[in-house]
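Q: Sequence in, structure out?
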Amino acid sequence: MTETSPQQAQQAIIEEFAFFDDWLERYQYLIDLGKKLPPLAPEEMTDDRLLSGCQSNVWFVADGDASRLEFRANSDAAIVSGLIALLLRVYSGREAEEILATEPEFIDAIGLSEHLSPTRANGLNAMLQAVRNVARSSLQ
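A: Exactly. Output:
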């Protein structure tokens, strides 16, 4: 998953979304990405792994240390699962310092900031904060 840098992963996402003419197609692509997320094991879908700030249920699992952090997550909402898939492409399998140094530029570049509902935008921010919090904690 990390054969590319975070910047290359973001550029690939931007190029993929450029293929679609309208937001209905982009939403469908997000849904398709979300369907490809590997499922979490039932024992991983516990209340202590639920992210707050998300309207839908989002379970977030982090493993590793500062030299390599792996993230897995899933949601009961289709579009949110797609957003998770994008974040995992950019941030999972990376060093903590690299995670903290990488701004999620793809969010604005593909127009998510303007096209997500406020609740989905809050959820996306909560997921991003969870990733960054794990990276920060691993450096201490």
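Residues 118-138 form the longest helix (21 residues).
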